[in-house]
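Please produce the structure of this protein holding glyoxylic acid.
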Amino acid sequence: MAKPKVFVTRIIPDKGFDLVKEACEVDLWTEELPPLYEVLLERVRGVDGLLCLLTDRIDAQLMDAAGPQLKVISNHAVGFDNIDIPAATARKIPVGNTPGILTDATADFAFSLLVAAARRVVEGDRYVRAGKWKTWGPSILLGPDITGATLGIIGYGRIGQALAKRASGFDMRILYHDPMVAPGSNLPGTAVDLETLLRESDFVSLHTLLNEQTRHLINRDTLALMKPSAVLVNTSRGPVVDGQALYEALKEGKIFAAALDVTDPEPLPMDSPLLELDNLIIAPHIASASKPTRDKMSLMAAENLLAGLSDRRLPTCVNPEVY
Ligand code: GLV
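Below is the modeled complex.
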């Protein structure tokens, strides 16, 4: 029997790719940069399955370009804002993602960004390398305390809760804001409205999905509610923060510092004014980038792909209404 045809839009870890190779006729994109949209449109023609990354825009036009035989879209990411889910659902195409397995790696990274921004780790390194370190000084590179501070978590799903767990080891007071959490839930921390969270938190960490409600949730007005000593951390999606408003807030000292693992756009252009700021850390979207986590993500993405190709329910499906 002929093997199903799939397009894999980037080299992924062998753990998952070996499974795909064994079961499918694979067209693999081997370049370092993602395929351009026009190239994607060409390469998906006639495939039964698509294994894609968060850098690939998968919209209705692309699904139609693939053709009516397209059975499954498997995203090698937990986020799926790169995929038009209603369009996939309308075509009865299940979409898979990789939830759960990257929770700890991402929460670890969010906490390390929080610490690094507060305690000025990256600035300290630059200071040393620039030859500015002349002596131990009582007032050099001071930052706020982490232990005992208030942490506001926006988006209290798996990753937000895992961050709270880490913060509890630092005796932090946890506030959270998440309209999806049912009132009266017994999750650790205190549920508050967004304004209270922003006003009272020493650290604000973002863990929301990107959608029309959360795009530019952090903007000039919401940044103005934060304490001048506050630190903002974003490991969710870049467009949740209005970059221009963040630039102004950091430049004018309206907040103390920020750390971003995600930007808008990605990658951040080298002439972005954000890169001029000393009180901002920017990482290249690597919160889930531990080796074991990426291996597990590739496995889960492969399992979703293979399930869809053999008409089985995807182990982790973001649009179960297709069934
Ligand atoms: C990474 O950002 C992911 O969504 O997996």
